[in-house]
Amino acid sequence: MAERSTAAVDVADTSGEEPLTAKAGKATDDGAKADKVSDAEQDAAGTDDATAAAETEPPELHSGHKLARRYRLEECVTRLEGFSSWRAVDEKLRRAVGVHILPADHPRARPVLSAARASALLGDPRFVQVLDAVEENDLVYVVHEWLPDATELSAVLAGGPLEPHDAYQLVSQVSQAMAAAHREGLAHLRINPGSVLRTESGQYRIRGLAVMAALRGITSDEPQRTDTEAIGALLYAALTQRWPYENDAYGLSGLPKGVGLIAPDQVRAGVHRGLSELAMRAVVNDGATASRQEQPCTTPDELAKAVAALPRIRPPETSFTTPPPYQRTQYQQGSYGQSAARNGQMNRAAQPVPSPPPPLQSRTGKALKWAVSALLIAALGLGSWQLADTLLKGEKQEPQPNSQPAPKSKDKLTGKPLSIVTAKDFDPEGSDGGENPEETGKAYDSDPNSYWPTSSYRNWPNFGRLKSGVGLILDLGKKQRIGSTDVTFIGDTSVQLLAASKDATEMPTTLDAFTKVAEGSGSKVNLKPSKPLETRYVLVWLTKLPQDTGGDYRGKVTDIKVIG
């Protein structure tokens, strides 16, 4: 599939960075707080409509305004070049969302709509998802996820450079995600510390796929190289807490002027050598790594493979005294997580710990202490006598010739994934066509880019009110002991885990043959029965589906792991 030169957006770009000067043929980063676009930036980015966009006034909206009688605007976080970005509330689903709004006659309105719809079709959970893209009442608006537990990478780096393991996870996750996007013909073109978010679980989410570039009118003749160089800059910043160019940006100091680009391990002591070389291979072209005889990484896929080829980097030992280097984002804040210093908060002075009361010195207190001491001595003596008696009896007892080792407890679980022999789509209330039976293997192939989809249903998440659910029957090959089952979806989905009788030797054909043992909802669901069970057949039973970009409801299972 041919690559698109513009991309699709999820969240407002409010990082306040300085412009990033790219090489010829690269995109130019025009800065989030600039109110106007200069002629030089227009030429570098190739945006013929930049002047018209700057002259277009953003819609006169205010807090409390509703779009489509559903999305209530709460706080404007960006107002720039004729468009505005808001934190809003989806009153129908009662959740926070982000919204980008442009006038319908804005010169970038059509590219933004096209980019948003293309990004929404990707459906990759590593990106902040586009939820809606609409033209209505002389407005064009794009609705996207708002992640209340996420923190901008720029805020994370404000607390210092990342540990080698964390930097490895950053470049690995971002490069793999962008490689998957480029395979679908989507580019980002504005990857920076403000467009990468870190969740509380340590996962990285990329916001603004395609849309951020479309909003700014950014294009590139080499979109894969542009995104790869931007990922290299992220890794460089994560290792050194410095921006790999002369200009300061994203709250980071640039390199000294006139020195040129130097390797991260020459900027800061203790930088991981392999990651330092990897950053150099990604950041610049043509001879950047000639001294080390390494070829440049020119695509996200090449970078992801180079990351995978690195020796294993172990995570640091857990520390219970050092606080995390970033703060959780509160729902009330207008932008993603900021450090305490940026928000002007001051740490409260530590309160003195009260000293314990002095011990009792009265006659009663002394008598009580003597009594307790005597009881302890007596208990120790009795225990020692019983231990000695037991040891002596053990020495006299003759070993039994036919004695067998104690049987292992049946309740002991391995904690390892069990092998799934096959899976069958299960639609007992549907038609003979089933639910995409030819794609069931994609639900447990350990490939995050593949999935088993259900059919599409209209109007209602509970299968259009036509049936109680659909699912997959998993055959484990033989009766196995099961502790839990992990299911990963694209979009929040309600699901139940049902088990067949432990005596079942053939795959059941009716829902009555299964018993519900666990349930949950979300995009990553751990289904754990109240106690371990034994069976050969388990049913992953979907009961409510997420809504796709076309307005229909459809389930997508990307991975299933049955844990023994």
Major β-sheet profile: 7 strands, antiparallel
Strand content: 15-25%
What CATH architecture label of the largest domain applies?
Orthogonal Bundle
Contiguous uncertain segments of 5+ residues: 1-48, 50-55, 287-291, 319-323, 326-333, 339-357, 398-410
Under CATH, the topology of the largest domain can be stated as Transferase(Phosphotransferase), domain 1
Please provide the ordered H/E string of secondary-structure elements. HHEEEEHEEEHHEEHHEEHHHHEEEEEEE
Rounded mean pLDDT is 79
Descriptive overview:
- By secondary structure, the protein is of the alpha+beta class.
- The chain folds into three domains: 107 residues, 2-Layer Sandwich (Phosphorylase Kinase, domain 1); 159 residues, Orthogonal Bundle (Transferase(Phosphotransferase), domain 1), CATH 1.10.510; 142 residues, Sandwich (Jelly Rolls), CATH 2.60.120.260.
- It is 24% helix and 23% strand.
- The protein contains eleven helices and 18 strands.
- Strands 12, 13, 14, 15, 16, 17 and 18 form a seven-stranded antiparallel beta sheet that branches. The protein has a six-stranded antiparallel beta sheet with strand order 1-2-3-4-6-5, with helices on one face.
- Strand 2 and strand 3 form a beta hairpin.
- The N terminus is likely disordered.
Question: Quick gist of this model?
Answer:
24% of the residues lie in helices and 23% in strands. With 564 residues, the protein is an alpha+beta fold. It is globular, with a radius of gyration of 30 Å.
Helix and strand arrangement:
Elements lengths: L38 H7 L4 H6 L10 E2 L3 E10 L2 E8 L4 E9 L5 H14 L7 E7 L2 E7 L4 E3 H5 L6 H20 L12 E4 L4 E3 L4 H6 L6 H18 L1 E2 L9 E2 L9 H4 L5 H11 L16 H9 L54 H34 L25 E5 L25 E2 L16 E13 L1 E17 L13 E14 L5 E12 L11 E8 L1
Helix pairs in contact: 5-7, 5-10, 7-9
